[in-house]
UniProtKB/TrEMBL annotation:
GO molecular function, one term: transcription cis-regulatory region binding
The SpoVT-AbrB domain, residue ranges: 78-123
One Gene Ontology cellular component: protein-DNA complex
Pfam families: AbrB-like
Annotated source species: Acaryochloris marina (strain MBIC 11017)
Taxonomic superkingdom: Bacteria
Protein name as catalogued: SpoVT-AbrB domain-containing protein
Statement: the UniProt record of this protein carries the keyword DNA-binding: yes
Keywords annotated in UniProt: DNA-binding, Plasmid
Transmembrane segments annotated in the record for this chain: none
Length: 125
């Protein structure tokens, strides 16, 4: 247990559950981004706001993932998209949120015979 506490202090383990909610009470004077940093939601140099917000919802007992407890209403990600009339394809926010992507993240596109491969670029590339 001591290792887990030490890892959290070093920012390796983000806070979750009641621990997260209690910490947020102490950080009410900070911005959302600063709260996320203080609670350990940092990947490299980027703040993972999506993961932070999802953890808050989960800590409050709200699930957006459509698990077995859901009532079956609403849309779920289908992992299928179509090409629009203008030739574009749109990847919805359900996918980008699931990956923790942020505005401005960049990707390299490689086109194969019958596939498109996206590779996320890191800041040092």
């Amino acid at each position: 247990m001591a290792k887990k506490a030490a890892a959290k202090k070093q920012g390796k383990q983000p806070l979750v559950g009641k621990e997260l909610l209690n910490k947020l009470k102490d950080l009410s004077h900070l911005s959302k981004r600063e709260k996320a940093k203080e609670c350990g939601y940092v990947v490299g140099k980027k703040v993972n706001l999506s993961g932070f917000m999802n953890a808050i919802l989960e800590a409050k007992g709200i699930s957006l993932d459509g698990d077995a407890n859901s009532d079956g209403r609403g849309r779920e990600a289908s992992y299928r998209i179509k090409v629009h009339q203008n030739g574009q394809m749109v990847i919805g926010s359900a996918y980008t949120e699931k990956m923790g992507l942020q505005t401005g993240d960049e990707f390299e596109i490689k086109v194969g015979r019958k596939h498109i491969h996206l590779t996320q670029l890191t800041e040092d590339e």
